[in-house]
């Protein structure tokens, strides 16, 4: 299908979302890939991952870019050659990109009960505000997605979700909160936004203006 949804959180930022329903062959049509991207694609064993990879290239095209406009740092962070900031995510049947003049991160996660099993790996400070009368699974998924988004923003790698990233109090109805990365010489706060898309949770972080 074509684009599932586009949004503009502010005048500097755009989000493009794709619902991955096409076959690998259909997604391969009319998409030019760099030599490095072809190599990456061939190395992927899962067709789900390959389709996700190609759907992101369709999102780039929808945003006015090509695969050749994208490059990655040594720590695996994507960048656009024109200096715009970009973050990329895909999970199962959805993919999304966020492009901005400011630092951004994005994550999409399938909302699943199994997140309760791993919550001890990423919930710390947040334990103090998780609301028993709210959607527990979705709260955990937002916290994970918010921390993943901030992890993608930090350029040097090496962060732990549990100890190095905090997400401030929220309720699901708020659809927004704030968060920060707790490392030396990184005194920046971020606006966190989240929404449900079918049975997925989309979360993105934008550097506070």
Description:
There is one protein chain. By secondary structure, the chain is α+β, with helices and mostly antiparallel strands. It is built from six helices and eleven strands. The protein has helices at 24-28, 35-43, 47-62, 115-118, 136-153, 161-164, and strands at residues 3-10, 13-19, 70-72, 78-80, 85-91, 94-100, 104-110, 165-167, 176-181, 189-197, 200-207. A five-stranded antiparallel β-sheet has the order 7-11-10-9-8. It has a four-stranded antiparallel β-sheet with strand order 1-2-6-5, sandwiched between helices. It has a two-stranded antiparallel ribbon with strand order 3-4. The longest helix is centred in the last third of the chain and has 18 residues, at 136-153. The mean pLDDT is 95.
Distance between the termini: 35 Å
Estimate the mean pLDDT confidence: 95
Q: Encode the helix/strand succession as letters.
A: EEHHHEEEEEHHHEEEE
Unreliable spans? none
Q: In which order are the strands of the major sheet placed?
A: 7-11-10-9-8
List its salient traits.
209 residues; alpha+beta; Ribosomal Protein L22, Chain A; 2 domains; five-stranded antiparallel sheet; 6 helices; globular
A few lines on this structure:
This protein has 209 residues and is of the alpha+beta class.
What is the fold's blueprint, element by element?
Layout (H helix, E strand, L loop, with lengths): L2 E8 L2 E7 L4 H5 L6 H9 L3 H16 L7 E3 L5 E3 L4 E7 L2 E7 L3 E7 L4 H4 L17 H18 L7 H4 E3 L8 E6 L7 E9 L2 E8 L2
